[in-house]
Design brief:
Helix content is 60%, strand content 8%. It is mainly alpha-helical and 379 residues long.
């Protein structure tokens, strides 16, 4: 029994997936919205009418819909864990900014004494001494013991902090602001501690699943990925090799490939808006990290920047190139070999025509005694 619904994840999908006789076809909300506009230009909308349109779309255009085929349990667990961990990290960043907002108003000295206001050290200090007045009442011996317990071993830095604590002046004497600020700071400190513990739990579970995953050797071969991005790369593509027909399909699905809109003499190329943001972010961050540990990736990035591209545009261009390599390794189940890639790149590089400009990455002038000779070098 074929069933089309306007949902790819959620409670309905979770409950219907347990029935073997149901074949689910998720319909993208934008697809349904544009299909509705074809028959209702006025913008009229109702749930009953949308249900009829989804059925009509399933009966008349089944080739336009993709069947829901769940991946393996291990891969889907990695996908859920990686995405939820990222959401928790974003919440941690948001709460850290909220803590900084209130510290600037009632306790700004903390931001100068410590580099990271969301660190466990600052959280412990704010929990024990929530106001500047209470902090100044503590003895230097007590403060030094506290710093040593939290691995603050620089005596010069500790003595500087003690001197500034004694000389510090309260930022405000507004009782209403102080009362609210102290309460908000204490709540933020507790939430940040819970979020750090939650992130550590996610990391342990992700690491355990990743160690046993069959595609681990492939992901470990890519430069710049590391322990944080390697599980996310698995979560981005899964293990179903038939899911993507080509590297172009993967780059379009991930949102790395640009979109071209042309009409008449007008042509506009822009980045893709309708895409899984988490997957696009994964490939974008991986390409950015590869710049630091891959020579040809750094050269490609520098070339794009020299052409006037911005940082993120250059990184997206590099990610587009990486996806082609990634797709081939993933599809063939072979690890990435940089020497093999460079050899294939030299083999398929276009030969310079007489009188044409010579690519700097392929040839260079070498001193050969009394004359200079154009010699081929690795790209």
């Amino acid at each position: 029994m074929a069933l089309a619904l306007e949902q790819a994840r959620g409670a309905v999908i979770a409950m219907l997936s347990k029935y073997a006789h149901l074949v689910l076809f998720p319909v993208h909300p934008s697809t349904l919205s544009n299909y509705r506009k074809s028959f209702a230009p006025s913008g009229a909308k109702s749930d009953a009418h949308d249900g009829d349109l989804i059925l009509d779309l399933l009966l008349k255009h089944p080739e336009r819909l993709q069947r829901c085929q769940p991946d393996t349990v291990e891969t889907r667990s990695l996908q859920f864990l990686c995405e939820e961990r990222r959401k928790l990290v974003n919440q941690h960043s948001s709460e850290s900014q909220r803590l900084t907002h209130w510290l600037k108003q009632v306790y700004p000295q903390v931001l100068r004494w410590f580099d990271d206001p969301a660190s466990p050290l600052v959280g412990a200090l704010l929990s024990r001494w929530p106001t500047l007045g209470k902090l100044q009442k503590a003895s230097p011996k007590t403060l030094l013991k506290f710093f040593h317990q939290h691995n603050c071993r620089s005596e010069e830095r500790n003595q500087q902090r003690l001197a500034e604590i004694r000389q510090a002046v309260a930022a405000t004497h507004d009782e209403a602001l102080l009362e609210t600020g102290v309460l908000c700071i204490q709540n933020s400190v507790r939430l940040l501690a819970q979020m750090r513990a939650g992130i550590e739990s996610f990391d342990r579970q992700i690491a355990a699943l990743y160690r046993a995953h069959p595609d681990r050797a492939i992901m470990e071969s890519f430069p710049g990925a590391g322990p944080a991005l390697e599980p996310r790369l698995i979560a981005a593509v899964g293990t179903q090799r038939e899911r993507f027909e080509s590297a172009h399909n993967l780059s379009c699905f991930s949102g790395i490939a640009p979109v071209t809109t042309s009409s008449g003499n007008t042509r506009w190329v822009h980045w893709r808006w309708a895409c899984p943001k988490f997957i696009r972010q994964t490939f974008h961050e991986w390409a950015n990290c590869s710049i630091r540990c891959c020579e040809w990736a750094r050269a490609f990035y520098d070339e794009k920047r020299a052409q006037g591209k911005g940082h993120h545009a250059a990184v997206r261009a590099l990610a587009f190139k990486w996806i082609r390599i990634f797709f081939r390794c993933w599809r063939d189940r072979v690890p990435y070999d940089e020497q093999q890639y460079l050899e294939a790149r030299r083999k398929h590089a276009p030969k310079p025509q007489p009188g044409a400009a010579v690519p700097a990455e392929l040839y260079e002038w070498k001193n050969c005694g009394t004359f200079f000779q154009l010699a081929k070098v690795s790209c």
